[in-house]
Amino acid sequence: MGNRPPEAGIRVPPSVLRDFVQKLFAGAGMRDEDAQTMADLLVATDLRGVVSHGTHQTQGYMRMLLQGRVNPRPEIQVLSSRGATRVYDGDGGMGHLPSSQAARFVAEAAQEHGLAAATTGNHFHFGGAGKYSRFAADAGCIGIAVSSHRWQRQGPILSAATGASPMSVAFPSRDQPPFVLDMATTFVGWDDDLFEQAPFLYFKQLGLGAAAHVLGGILAGIWKSDRIPPTSKWESNQGGFFAAFAVDAFLDENEFYQEMDRFVSECREAAPFPGQDQAQLPGNVEAQLEADYARDGIPISDTHQKTLEDAAADVGIDSPLADFEHTRFGETSTS
Predict the structure, then answer these.
(1) H or E element: which one contains 168?
(2) pLDDT tens digit string along 94-130?
(3) Of the candidates 184, 197, 258, 310, which lies 20 to 30 Å from 281 by C-alpha distance?
(4) What domains lie within the chain, and their CATH numbers?
(5) What is the rounded distance in angstroms from the CA atom of residue 76 to the CA atom of residue 36?
(6) pTM of full prediction above 0.90
(7) pLDDT tens across 132-164, in order?
(8) b/e code 26-48 from CB counts within 10 Å (16+ = b)
(9) How would DSSP label each residue in 295-310?
């Protein structure tokens, strides 16, 4: 799924969508507070225009919960803690839950110690990486979030290392929108001709994917025998790595923000690429969408709306989305 705004659909206030999605996850068996965490993170992703990893994922996640493949009520534990580092166990649940805890921990610990890191393991999908690195940026730190997974049910490890592992690096700013790199480490599909013309594209994405797999996969313990089916009851095939660095541990905070704002501003004033209206750094467009969607409502395509309404029917919950037909824009949407 592409991450472009839908050409047609309805607009839903973030608060309405957040409450609806919370009820959906609670209906699928999650604790109210965990369901709220899922709703908060997924709607935050929608607000930034990252359609692929927002509430469009809700129905698929709920099916995993209802089918007993993902633990709806995990008991998340800190397995070890050493200095400003932690290891979290997700108990076979959704990856968003231990990952948000780890991201908050590193953001807070880095402010005290200068830097911090954590891993999460024994959980399912954690969604887009950018929402976790932003915890650190919001706290005045540079944040890193990386994830990886086991392909199929047991491997192979080489496929996992070359999979589309997500990574994000977020840099705080003051007067300019934050610079947030949020991407999959696989960005070019295999093509013999393209490989001959530009082999460096494939070598670079292999390097990025392998590095992501070591940090968010091997270091996070996803290959431990007790986390691999059939030993594990759950589809606990993913892990994550999170780090934060307090900028004032390295440079005067005001000086950093002054230089960061100047850097972002100068980049945005540069000549744009062909076909683009304005030059932007990663994260700049998302910041503008977040402001626009918070004001005008999140655009939901017809297909997106149907997946949410079907999910509601699966757990016997009324959908509020039909109440927003008066906000419809464009023609019939299929995206």
Answers:
(1) strand 166-171
(2) 999 999 999 999 999 999 999 999 999 999 999 999 9
(3) 197
(4) 1-67+297-335 (1.10.1530.10), 78-268 (3.30.1370.60)
(5) 16
(6) yes
(7) 999 999 999 999 999 999 876 555 666 666 677
(8) bbbbbeeebbbbbbbbbbbbbbb
(9) HH-EEE-HHHHHHHHH
